[in-house]
Amino acid sequence: MTQLPQSTDRKMGLVIDLDTCVGCHACVISCKGWNTENYGAPLSDQDAYGSDPSGTFLNRVHSFEVQPTPCQSNPAPEAQLIHFPKSCLHCEDAPCVTVCPTGASYKRVEDGIVLVNESDCIGCGLCAWSCPYGARELDQAEGVMKKCTLCVDRIYNENLEEVDRVPTCVRTCPAGARHFGDLGDPNSDVSQLVAERGGMDLMPEMGTKPVNKYLPPRPKDTIEEQIDILAPLLAPIAEEPQGFLGWLDKALDKLPGGNA
Amino acid sequence: MTIQQPKIDTSPKISDEIRRTTCYMCACRCGINVHMKSGKVAYIEGNRDHPVNKGVLCAKGSAGIMQVNAPSRLRAPLKRVGPRGSGAFEEISWEEALTMATDLLEPIRKDNPEKLAFFTGRDQSQSFTSFWAQHFGTPNYAAHGGFCSVNMAAGGIYTMGGAFWEFGQPDWDHTKLFMMFGVAEDHDSNPIKMGLGKIKARGARVIGVNPIRSGYNAIADEWVGITPGTDGLFILSMIHVLLKAGKIDLDYLSRYTNAPVLVNASEGAENGLFLRDADGKPLVIDRNTGELTAFNKPGVRPDLSATHTIDGVTHRPVFHQMVERYMADEYAPEAIADRCGIPAKRIRAIAGELARVAFDEAFELDKEWTDFRGEKHTKMIGRPVAMHSMRGVSAHANGFQTCRALHVLQIILGTVEVPGGFRFKPPYPKPVEAHPKPHYGVTPGKPLDGPHLGYVTGPDDLCLKEDGSAARIDKAYTWENPMSAHGLMHMVISNAHAGDPYKIDTLFMYMANMSWNSSMNTKGVMEMLTDKDENGDYVIPNIIYSDAYSSEMVAYADLVLPDTTYLERHDCISLLDRPICEADAAADAIRWPVIEPDRDVRGFQSVLCELGARLNLPGFVNEDGSQKYADYGDYIVNHQRKPGIGPLHGFRGDGTQAGRGDVNPEQLDKYIENGGFCVTHIPDGADYYKPWNAAYQDWAVEIGLYDSPQPYLFQLYSEPMRKFQLAAEGHGDRQPPEHLRERIKETLDPLPIWYETDQEGNQGFTVNALTQRPMAMYHSWGTQNAWLRQLHGRNPLYVPTKLMRQHGLSDGDWAKVTSPHGSITVPVMEMAALNDNTVWTWNAIGKRKGAWALEEDAPEATKGFLLNHLIHELLPPKADGMRWANSDPVTGQAAWFDLKVKIEKAGAPDDLPESQPVFEPIKSPVGTGPKNLAWKVGK
Amino acid sequence: MHPAPSVIVFTTLSGLGFGLLLFLGLGMPDVTGWVAFVFFAIAYALAVGGLLASTFHLGHPERALKAFTQWRSSWLSREGWCAVIALLVMAPYGAGLVFMGESYSILGLIGALFSLLTVFTTSMIYTQLKTIPRWNMKLTPAMFLSFSLAGGALLSGQIKAAMVLLAVAAVVQVVYWKQGDQALAASGTDMGTATGLGSIGEVRAFEPPHTGTNYLLREFVHVVGRKHAAKLRIIAFTLAFVVPLLLLYLSPHHLGALIAVLSHLVGIAVSRWLFFAQAEHVVGLYYGKR
């Protein structure tokens, strides 16, 4: 099953809004909790209370600083900080699937979710080597490859209310920076969001065709460019308190119920 | 080809049962669904129905399972067997522990209750613990507000009868411009994240004022990387710009604020006081009639402009003074730009944007309402500018005035309690007058004469003994910090050690890591706690401490009362305390034991119920002397503060009454059935303009928030402050000590001012040093959590690019950081999105070796560090040798963020394996945790 | 990449072993009986030993047989097939030479072909990875094959062939290093494309997602000091190629050959260590590591 399906019925995935993510790690730990208790082996932790704690996580939040390129309107732009959640992007051309020697890694035909069948996994690590995004981690206790399942055991789960049939990271995200849906359907909410906000691929040059998209941060620190619009608003009505009180009397008369 | 996929179960059973309770991984108090499998906690998620978090949950909340199972949990009561601070304990029975405590406390109560200092830290049961302390009779009680953000609470309540914290919220549904000052992930964290997400989704603009561009500020559309401690100046400059442009809401100012109230302009003892009528109501001129009249008379249109002269004394409206002060050139953007580190053009642009959105994007809601003067309004005018602020502004010695300035800015734009603006959550709005005053009347063997904490309105309310000395061990409500509404927990240990104002016998603390991250001058505090007198006795004779975990403070107690974790206990998040209300609803919540403790531990509040009974405290015993409340759950249901009013407002009486009603024995069951909380909505039309909205006031009386309607005016001008100034000018019976006169005159200005905090002794220390709390950690708790400590297991000092270059530093190098008080040597990391002259680090990641059940070589203990070592609770000595508190002179708020340092490159990383200073390991009373974890409850 | 000893041992030994098998399969040297036995024993020991070593890094070696299922898409699976076929085919061929003095040369040819294919498939496991630009080059299979051939020739005592092949391998090695050093930059992948933030300006990693380590950092991020690497390259080059060539040229007898083989083996192992240790996986970009 290491071959990729020709096409999938749907392209379920995430849209992550880099303009909204505050970097709180809620998605990271919610994912850890759900996937420790559910699909496959628990996500283990080594040296949990010691000098070098390290565990399996399927979703991690990086942060980057960007020094914007100076331009005419902003010759000395301030550096920006962007929080950057990253998990499996459920690529259409997922190299992690084709490199797998045992068929443990596969991409589902019905929704495009990339999964690992843990009972077939020999833990060779090659799929992790082939993934440019660092989406796969070999669990040190279990010796099998772990990765985001897009909460395949939630999104169709009839034991959950309809509203909860979303990945746990999406359900828990306090800022609403994570969106889940069918990116293969141009009319879906997520596809529309991607279209509106210029959603982008990570490392498009890798040719992996990620399903998950990232919404770029909106332009920042532009308020001084609007000073031409704002300055007239601030035209002084008086320079001195005395003049101000003169203005005040007239202004008060103009209020509803005033004399003017 | 046909592809054969494995068949997987996409509908596995989630859990056996969901138990819904309240999170306690931080102060946010979200609703959680605790999924149980075979009687064990399997998974925790947010409760969708809950008013606070509506289903979402932060990293801490989801990691609760690791907290409940943390190896650092204390297991049984502990009696100290080694020297204090060593960590050598023996486990004892509860009977022995309670007998020890009773034997210590009984004589204190009989002879002199003030010898007990009872202070609680991150306590969420303050209305209960204060009730206990009050019945014990000691004046020495407070929680941790004084070293947290009392400036913000007091500044808000004195100015507008409500504050930021979690006591109010932006109108997230309508606001179009959200401006935050000094907000990291502090209180109300999930609601703020949710709100930011909501307004971002609408494309509304966010302005972040913060020296550090992380977290919320990272997603701000505009970042103002202000110089720490200058926010007040920046705000007053925007007020200057807005006044000059006439971009202020005159209608709002005249109706709802004391801008039109007349102030005595004569020299002498009345100067600066309000002109009042016989009933004590402040007077205004009615613009309709030109007559002097009480502000609240039906039909009055208060005049912002007219003055009034009686008996040759001119009375001028507050607004005149504001105009005179803030139109002065000293507040012009050009005059303050350098000091604040913000270009003048940027200040003007932001002020312009505030004005544009407040006035040009104003909107109306079709809601009828009637104001307290009886005037009917057919619409509500929305001014979609909302603001929020927290510790970054609060934790400076000029923080109180800065908070006031910020509220004045909100108010002149007409954006408080209007659609699109900032809204209060019940029990706020609540004017100063509706709060209690502080009480300190001690009678041996009897309760205190009233609640400890409250709001003073002048020198008469200070907690001073006959001889003028402080009545409270923390010197709250004295001339040093007259308006210290939350007490000064950070001064308790040093005052008790110094015997100033008096010696105490027993220090009793709860959930406060005072020997580590919750104290300034950490090393000094450790020494004070272990210091002995000439007889070889400890200077602080007895220390009782309650905590659920093996924190650094445990080692310094003589008797440790082990608390439960948050899933093993009852709690109430009460309207009498700090509830979980929303702007359009009153709400409270409970915790209940969703699991039973597997150790010999008890909820601290239940222990106080029993201890109270053993001490025979009124309120904790029945008439026959038997124990009144079996445990905290029993108290929550059966206690009544006033007839019909108890800790929980919901399901009272027959189970249908909200607010007022008889005790309902089924109340806790009803809460559990309802998801652990109860919400009572504010009627439509009563949900804005609350301080002046008759419908809201009536509703508040109905559910028991007040006993009568309490409409009031926003206090742009604070008369209580003026009264302290008058005393400092020599008027009145109660007089401040000479050395404080000038400072009181200067800093207790009734109109907001900005002043540079005390820099004496800071020569040569020019770099600002700050801390903030990471979103995934809360105080020191996160460290014992196997999942969270992987996110933040050590903390570098973040240094701006300019200083990195200046000192030849690269990531991973070590730097020596020195303040007038001490020095630390720590690893550094470059940050570009940071104020050029500010360094910072994450708070409370650094740990003492041996604490929290971590191994001694844990990165928290080797690389992690505290800035606390650089901060002293006292400022450097003055010329006369006197050392003043490192606190706000108004409220006593600990001025954590006034810290100034210098940095220099330290030795090569190879020579410095550990952050300095290093302390002796403490012996862990619980050992260390297991090596590896593979947590799965349902196998 | 983390230079895992098991993988270095595997690729080094099995490269050499299959190289030797290739020559044996081609009837070079043309030996039978005990001499043949010794040659085949060495070849099998190296090839099988290498293959066994490769299982040490598996999380579940007991499931290794499942790796034969995906030959249609997976180079690792193909490698398994080629190795097994080569070893199975060479067994009767070797038995013929050792026990019967017969050369079933058709089997030898097939075995030689699959030995070569084994080395090629091994190299393709690395070459196919776009995530590691230093490996994702045509020179990678060239390097594996030339090393294997040179080693095989050396071990099988084909002095002249060995001298030519060692020289070729040395050239491939130098060109590989030169091109490899440019590979990441030439790949077009950087922090800008990794984060999609490059259009705003210069991207720099700030706080990592975790303060400790994790599988990704342990497996993919290994930083070798530039000076250290240069030194190791000289050592690898000298031992793998210069010393064997000199020895073959100066003293082409048994002891010289033995030293040449050992020197070559150590040199190739060092080169292989560098092959892994210097390979930059693009996931390191998310951590601000090259």
From TrEMBL, chain A:
Record's keyword terms, sorted: 4Fe-4S, Iron, Iron-sulfur, Metal-binding
Ranges of residues in domain 4Fe-4S ferredoxin-type: 12-42, 79-111, 112-141
Highest taxon of the lineage: Bacteria
Organism, scientific name: Phaeobacter gallaeciensis
Regions that span the bilayer: none
InterPro entries: 4Fe4S_Fe-S-bd, 4Fe4S_Fe_S_CS, ET_IronSulfur_Cluster-Binding
Example of a GO MF term: 4 iron, 4 sulfur cluster binding
Keyword Transmembrane helix annotated: no
Signal peptide location: none
Family annotation (Pfam families): Fer4_11 (PF13247)
UniProt cross-references to SUPFAM superfamilies, sorted A to Z: 4Fe-4S ferredoxins
Name of this protein: (Fe-S)-binding protein
